[in-house]
Structures are given as structure tokens and as C-alpha cells.
Amino acid sequence: MPSPCRLRPDRTAPADLGIAIVGSSALEPIAAEAARLATRLAGRGHRVWTAEVPRRDAADGTPVPDDAPVLPGADLVIVLGGDGTILHTARWMAYHQVPVLGVNLGTLGFLADHPREEIDAAITDIEAGRFRLVDHMLFECQVLRGGTTVCRELGMNDVSVLAGPPFSMIEIRLHVDGEFATTYRGDGLIVSTPVGSTAYNLSAGGPIVRKDLDAFIFTPLNPHALTNRPVVDSAERTYDLFVPRPNAGSACVVDGRMMMALMEGDCVAVRRATPRFTLVETSHHGYYRTLRDKLHWGGGFQPTGPQTTRGGPSTC
Fold first, then answer.
1. How far, in Å, CA of 196 to CA of 186, rounded?
2. pLDDT in tens, 218-245
3. 262 touches 250 (CB < 8 A)
4. What is the longest distance spanned by two Cα atoms in the chain?
5. Domain check: are 113 and 239 in the same one?
6. Helix (H, G, I), strand (E, B) or coil at 101
7. pTM of the predicted model, to two decimals?
8. What is the extent of the structural domain holding 197?
9. How far is residue 282's CA from residue 128's CA, in Å, rounded to a whole number?
10. Are residues 145 and 245 in the same domain?
11. Does the residue 314 lie in any domain?
12. Please, what sign has the CA dihedral across residues 164, 206, 135, 285?
């Protein structure tokens, strides 16, 4: 059995934390930053190693590993890159998740929201226990064909059933806890987690849902019926999607990656996964600040009056 993570909020961290620095070594700035950071962390007494996150362009039916951790002995994973690298890291760790500090060396950085120049300050906060561990829901997606699972994926953002070529409308029948709920007719359907609500779901007109809630968001793509609107439902339930007459190019996509093409009679089953992805937030970063800074929530308007401070109401 792997040793439990020793990272705890409001408690001074052990002097010899096991820290894995992961990213893509194919990108020179990331490799250079990983080497610099590893030297600094080792100088502070921590056990440090670097790893490259493996990437797959398409699912090949290989089962999600659930027997052994890919980062044994790690108390903290520092991900260098962008949100895509964090998604790959979450899938890679699979059923043995380790708290992640995301450092943005990419573009948007909604999950990887610590800029490069804040890394040292963030590490100091973590060592002093000035941080929060925020859990994010993961999901399992299975494609069943004739009652047999032919593909299984662990995801964090969303699973989409897409009409595909020849780009004619398809029907998607939703069953909740085994009971028929509704039929979507259009270009497809996005089933998103709260952390994925600011990704493809948001672009398609779906709502933003606070990322630490346990829920699924159902957002139809170009629905034919005016009554088809985004719906938020509990992650306690089970969801099955059936496409009775898929197009030749209809497919199931998980976190932006092709999972597999769909055939008549396939069932796409979506469930909340047992493991949870854990993100480290320091005192300098919070959910609403990220919405304002990364998504320009509020259109850039900044109030001039007294501000609400973390942990209590504003003072006048």
C-alpha cells in the first residue's frame, strides 16, 4: 500500500515532502523551469523527482489503471504547463490521486492558476500550512456494446456525444437511474462536471457551476426544440445515453479526446468516479478571483467601495 499523503492545511508541512514535478519535456521552457524548481526544492530539504505525463491522442480500449500509483511516495505534484497538462495528469494518476499545484506556463490557466513568478511564494505557503485542498469530482465513462464494456475512461471536464459526419441531426435518449428522462435532438450533448463547466460547456451556452460541487450539467448542442435547455442534476445518480441511429461519424469524446466511434445500440454510461482530483489553493488564489482574472467575469468592472475579505464580510 502507498504511504498516505502527508500534506495537511493549517499544519506545518514535513521538512522532507515528496514532490513530483510533471510536465511535457518536449517544451524547452517547461524542462528548464522543472530543473530550476527541482534544484530549489531539493535545497529546502524535500525529496524531488521529475516525470513526463504520458499522452494518448485517442483511446485504444486499454482499461484505466487502478492497481498501483504512478507516483508512489508523492505528497504533492507540481504541474508545469496549462489546463490540458493538468487534465492529462489527473487521468494519469487515475485511482491514486495526489494533491496538485498548477503552475501556468500555458495560455488560459483556469486550473493552473499560479503564474511562474508565484511558485516560490506558493511553496512557502504550503510549507507553512497556508493553503486549502479543494476536491474536484471526476467521472467514469463507459461505452457498452451488447451489454459488454468496450471502452472505459476516467475524465475530469466533460463527456460529449457528437453527431459528426455527415453532420445531420441525431437523437440522444437520456436515462436517469434506469428511467427514461428525455430525448435530445440536435448536434449532440455535453455532460459536464462543475470544473468542466467553464470549458466546452461554457462555450456552448451552459452555466458556470462552482467547481467543488458534486453535479453533472447537461448542455445540448444546437437543439432542435426550444424547450431543450441546460439542466443541472445530482452526481449521486447514474446516467445512460443511447443513440438509436448514429451518423457514420458519431462519436464519444472525453475531455476533448476521441474515446471511440459510436454504433447503433451503444450505451454511453456516465458515473461519478470514486477518486477525487485535489487542487492546492494558496492564500493568494480563490475561485471567484480566478473567474474574474481568467474569464473576465463582470466585464472588467471593478467596484470602488469596500471589498469583501476572505473569511468574513466587508468592513465599512
1. 21
2. 999 999 988 889 999 999 999 999 999 9
3. yes
4. 65
5. no
6. strand
7. 0.85
8. 138-274
9. 11
10. yes
11. no
12. positive
- Identify the three-state secondary structure at position 205: coil
Residue matched to cell numbers 527541482? 38
Is 217 part of a structural domain of the chain? yes
CB 194 within 8 A of CB 217: yes
* Side chain identity, residue 112: A
- Residue 158 near residue 255 (C-beta atoms within 8 A): yes
Q: Which strand (E) or helix (H) includes residue 217?
A: strand 215-221
- Residues 172, 45, single domain; the answer is no
Is 133 within 8 Å of 7 (Cβ atoms)?
yes
40: helix, strand or coil: helix
Catalytic machinery residues: 83
* Alpha helices in the chain, H assignment, sequence order: 28-43, 83-93, 119-128, 200-203, 287-295
Q: What is the CATH number of the domain that holds 222?
A: 2.60.200.30
SS3 304: coil
Instruction: Give the model confidence (pLDDT) of 38-76 as tens digits.
Output: 999 999 999 999 988 876 544 444 445 566 788 999 999
Distance CA 210, CA 298 (A): 16
Is residue 71 domain-shared with residue 48, that is, in the same domain?
yes
Q: Please give the grid coordinates belonging to residue 68.
A: 498501483
Cβ burial of 315 (10 Å; 0-12, 13-18, 19+) is: exposed
pLDDT of residue 316: 40
Secondary element (H or E) of residue 139: strand 131-145
Q: Is the residue at 308 inside a domain?
A: no
